[in-house]
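Data deposition worksheet. Section B asks for the primary sequence of the deposited chain exactly as it was used as input, without tags or linkers unless they were present during the calculation. Section C holds the resulting structure in token form. Section D is free text for depositor observations; keep each observation to a single sentence. Incomplete worksheets are returned to the depositor.
Section A, Depositor: J.P.
Section B:
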Amino acid sequence: MWEYTDKVKEHFLNPRNVGEVENPDGVGEVGSIACGDALKLSFKLDKDKRIKEAKFKTFGCASAIASSSALTEMIKGKTLEEAMKISNRDIAEYLGGLPEEKMHCSVMGKEALDKAIENFKGAPAVKPGEKIICECFGVTDMEIERAVRENNLATIEDVTNYTKAGGGCGNCHEAIQQIIDRVKAEEKPVIRPKLTNIQKIRMIEESLEREIRPSLRHDGGDIELVDVVGNRVLVATRGACKTCKASDITLKNFVEAKLRELISTDLIIEEVNNP
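Section C:
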């Protein structure tokens, strides 16, 4: 049984901006009702070319509804360039985290937004050179590649969790593995200088303050660094994070992932009780 955050439940039970925008400037449709989740996103711009209205219609689970609802709230007031910078991770973090098996719902929202913007710009639904890999769910090679790169996916199961590709008949598994292998082969390892313990602690403190705590505080939560023992980063949750049932997901998928990205891939987050 999956654990959902209170924010996911709230957006599922009381979704914002349901429906279709009248005379929209852009429309994006992803997924397939026949195979599971489907989403239609539409938006309208104001005179300053900012998104003044965004609505969605979806056929899917609680995570799909919550992710779509959150996305429409996130993009309102933004320019198309600003909206395009929103990642599926941003959608999941806005909701306080999603189970790994449901991350494809946030990816679906991101893809619908991209297609709606492309529709506004007059771009074709499938770009030249792009090929559908998963016929069951209509997922292209470029969509799979982007999910692998942005979320550091390593297995076919990871790709299915994030895009649903490979979750049907399985005929595309070999093609998905080839994409994973190609992306991993292209990635160059980041060589970082060896840090002293004092340097490591200082960088962790700076990263928590600059990159992590603002997002947590936005939802009423917070985090406190308790100690650093080798590669173990001991933290205590505060505010809404302390009582959130999905705090372990946030710590692993957001806090630990961000510290590994910025400082060292060896870092491990551990929550401790610290009144």
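Section D:
The radius of gyration is 20 Å.
The beta strands are 26-31, 38-45, 51-59, 132-134, 139-140, 221-229, 232-239, 268-271.
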